[in-house]
Structures are given as C-alpha cells and as structure tokens.
Amino acid sequence: MGGKIDGYVDTVSPYSWYAFEYLHNNKSLLSSHGVEVEFHPIFLGGIVEATGNRPPFTIPAKAKYSPFDSKRAAKYFGVEHNGSPPFFPILSLLPQRALTYIKSTHPYPLYESTLAALWKALHIEHVDISKPPVLISVLGRIFPKEEDVEAIMAATADPEIKAKLNETTKRALSLGAFGAPFFSVTKFGVGGRENVVQPFFGSDRFHYMFDYLDVPVTHLRILGKGEMEEQRVGKGKGDGLGKSML
Question: Is 116 exposed, middle or buried (0-12, 13-18, 19+ CB in 10 A)?
C-alpha cells in the first residue's frame, strides 16, 4: 500500500479548487495510508489548445448547466460559492507563473496557502488576479514583506520561470491531461513489483482513485429508513466530504 497523487491545477479552474481543498483537508489521513499529495501549476489554456478540448462556457448546453453543477460541487466539498466572476475566464499565465516561482523558492506549505488565496480571490471575491495590481494585493496577504512580492512579480517575466511552467504543462499533456484538475496517480509496488501509474480527471473521481490506491473509504450509499435518525444524530461529526471521507 502507498503511492503519490500528483495534481495538475490552474487557478482559473474552480473544480481544481474543489479538488485541492478536499485533498488538502485529507492530507494527514492519506499520509497515514502512505499516500503523498503534490500540486503542480499548469497553464490550462495551453492544455485546452493542445488537445483541441473546448471549455464548457463555449458550449451553450454546458454553459447553461455549469452554474448548477458548480454550486452543487461547492456544497459537496464544503467550500464557498459565489458563481463565476463577470470577467470569467481569465488568461491565467501571470498567476500560474507566480505560483511556479513560489513553489520553486519557498516552503511548500506557503505555496499551498498562496494557491488557496488566489482561488478564493478569483472565485469568491471576484477580483481579476490576471491583473498585476490585483495579483500584488492578493500576494501581499501571504507575503507581508514587500520585497518578497516584488521578487515574485519580477519572476513572472523571467524566461526560466516561463519555461518551467511550460515544461510542467507539457508534462501534464504527456501524462494524458486534457483539462483540469488532472491527476497522475502512482501506486507504489511492493514485494519487488514495479510502480504503476494511472490518470484520473476531475474532482469527482476520488472513489476510483482511492480504490486504485487501496485506501479504505466510506462510499456513498442509500440509507434505510431505520438508519436515517441515526444519521441525523451523527451529522456534523466529520461525515461531510469537505471534511473527510477516509
């Protein structure tokens, strides 16, 4: 038993945020089963263009359905929901380059805190993090030193950081990504067996992922009438997906 979940995410994607929050909240439980989790910034626009995929908002039927699905998903994962910003989608190159630099130069927990702050700023506060002054303001919530924020913003124009984001995006494509969130999940071999890697897409495939990793979970099931009252009494004690399902 044991493995690693490599998540490829973009701040423009609300479903990447849902997946991040869920896995982040369950990181300790996953670790107890020998499973590591790491998130990698990618440029979703590049993924979509390279694969010929079409964003949901460009397909009328999907665009009409998406507000229902997004609201349900947010409730399911226990995160806030405020609909899509009026300027959605954004060109996410600037925040993704900033995240690439932060991940390379700062402690990983600080990188994750920045990820969460950027998602909330875009999808809850509805501020355009693709605009330099806005990004500077949001970064200042995580990095109190002005020189740290200046270094991050300067790095977004650094050819090395641009190339690094491009390389991570190409790696995701080589693993089979066609959207976000995308996961490359490694199941560690035991008894001399080789590691095995499988792709997973979206924020609603964790039951498949955990079954693959041999992580014990409580699956969604219909309750009998006799169990309903017992379920009501126990509600709020870590039984929601936004808290834990492991």
Answer: middle
Token pair of 150 as six digits: 């200046």
3-class secondary-structure state, position 22: helix
Any residues with CB less than 8 A from the CB of 39 and at least 6 apart, and which?
7, 8, 9, 20, 112, 115
Q: Poorest-confidence range of 21-35, 55-69, 132-146, 164-178?
A: 55-69
Query: d(Cα 203, Cα 95) in Å, to the nearest integer?
Result: 21
Provide the 3-class DSSP secondary structure of residue 47. helix
Cis peptide before 89 (omega within 30 of 0): yes
Taking a C-beta distance cutoff of 8 angstroms, is the pair 30, 23 a contact?
yes
Percentage with pLDDT > 70 across the chain = 92
Cα–Cα distance measured from residue 175 to residue 71, given in angstroms and rounded to the nearest whole number: 30
Residue 135: predicted pLDDT:
98
Which three-class secondary structure state does DSSP give residue 34? coil
Q: How far apart are CA 246 and CA 210, in angstroms?
A: 9
Picking from 183, 178, 175, the residue whose alpha carbon sits closest to that of residue 213 is 183
- Residue 233 banded pLDDT, cuts 50, 70, 90: low
Q: How far apart are CA 188 and CA 195, in angstroms?
A: 5
Q: What are phi and psi of 143, to 5 degrees?
A: -115, 100
- Quote the pTM value: 0.90
Q: Please tell me the distance from the alpha carbon of residue 238 to that of residue 20, in angstroms, as a whole number.
A: 18
